[in-house]
Amino acid sequence: MIDDATRLAHEATELLQLLIRNRCVNDGSPESGQEERSASLLKTYLEGSGVDLHSWVPAPGRTSLMARLPGRDASAPSLTWLGHTDVVPAAAQGWRHDPFGGELIDGEVWGRGAIDMLDLTATMAVGLRHLARSGFRPSGTLTYIAVADEEAMSRFGAHWLTEHVPDEVHSDYVITESGGFPMRTADGQTRLPVVVAEKGLCWCVLTVRGTPGHGSQPFRTDNALVKAAELVRRISEHHPPAQMHDAWRRFIEGMAFPAELSGPLLDPDRVRAFCQQLPAVGLARLAHASTHTTLAPTMMAAGTKINVIPDRVTLQVDIRTLPGWDATDVRAMLAEAIGDLADDVEIALPSCEQASSSPVDTPLWDALQRVTDHHYPGARNVPFLTAGATDARFHRALGSVAYGFGLHSRRISFEDYAAMFHGLDERVDVDSLQLCTELWTTLARDFLG
Q: Which residues pair with 297 in a beta bridge?
């Protein structure tokens, strides 16, 4: 006879496989995602367990689901587990297994969203259902929200919910993606990052203007695509200076790196060159992103026909800003990078959000440390800033303390995990699913018991 932990891990595995197979792929268009498939799946899974269920549909197919265990004490702190059901696109080319097959292979579930963040979305649901069916009644209200559209600015998900029904989705504390990957210090100790802050997000559209002409006579033409190519080069070679902020300092100090590593990682004059030389590419990318505002040209559209000199090119740039930056700073940085092409380039910032953070001196931080001690004896949690955007920012705007956390096994390394976010061969091991499920149930009893 299997124990509860093993049984719940089996449930989480099967639920994760179904979520992956639902293919809630969000390409940024309003009609993509179709998260109603996974919201319906989760609703069916949770029905009859004793939780209150509610859903919202801001646009056709873009469903977010909320399940709630009401608290018995109105003065007790409330807690929300926040997952998302959409995933970024994935082409089969380059994957070793079907990105939407949800296959269980050698103890690992494969597929897009396996670690971003359908694993947490699934295990949160399993943990909540188990708690409700066991008769657990929290002191403060425990809420689970599976939102749509996290992968595309959340205008049909958390952003919409916090704007339109803030009182219904607000909690004192929120946990969402994506920390808890065990990391080793130089002396063999274990550290688990807790995401307490995230960089700002500015999605930029640059429009490059030229003059149309015949493709058979390119000499001395005003080709917008040629100018755009030069613009891409300038952006890729533009390097804003490094800045050392509190979250990064606390992370490096918490990791207890040797001086030859921590020294340059905390020195704004040396960190970029040091990242260039680091053999561990994952750590190099992490350190660079955590200490610099970054610009990544990602999409370009140009031309109307092969024999027409293009007179208009749009270039999209993913900009992630450090704490303290706003839209004015971003425009000044872009102007510096664009240089003497400025007369031919129009800058648009359709979305520009500043960095956000939460304090670490909270009862939830202490509870997470106690849970970590239970599963990783002697390990310590360390504050962490993520370069990617999460829905935590919308809940911080409502006044919530929001962290990103999970619990993962050592089977998959931190480097491998980092490479899988929006990358190839995304997968999660069943041991991690069991750890995450145990995390939610243990945390609820500790923090809301």
A: 317
pTM, full prediction: 0.91
Do residues 338 and 345 lie in contact, with contact meaning Cβ atoms separated by under 8 Å?
yes
pLDDT tens, the chain, 449 aa long = 467 888 999 999 999 999 999 999 999 999 999 999 999 999 999 999 999 999 999 999 999 999 999 999 999 999 999 999 999 999 999 999 999 999 999 999 999 999 999 999 999 999 999 999 999 999 999 999 999 999 998 999 999 999 999 999 999 999 999 889 998 887 788 999 999 999 999 999 999 999 999 999 999 999 999 999 999 999 999 999 999 988 899 989 888 888 888 999 999 999 999 999 988 787 888 899 999 999 999 999 999 999 999 999 999 999 999 999 999 999 999 999 999 999 999 999 998 999 999 999 999 999 999 999 988 999 999 999 998 889 999 999 999 999 999 999 999 887 788 788 889 999 999 999 999 999 999 999 999 98
Spatial separation of the C-alpha atoms in residues 134 and 438, rounded to whole Å = 14
The ranges assigned to domains in the chain are 4-185+355-448, 200-240+293-352
**Kind of pairing between the strands at 200-209 and 294-302:** unpaired
Show the tokens assigned to 115: 């670690």
Q: In degrees, to the nearest 5, what angle opens at C-alpha 364 toward C-alphas 363 and 365?
A: 90
Fold of 4-185+355-448: Aminopeptidase (3.40.630)
Phi, psi of 184 (to 5 degrees): -95, 135
Return d(Cα 177, Cα 83) in angstroms, integer. 7
Fold assignment, 200-240+293-352: Alpha-Beta Plaits (3.30.70)
| CB crowding 24-33: b at 16 or more within 10 Å, else e | bbbeeeeebb
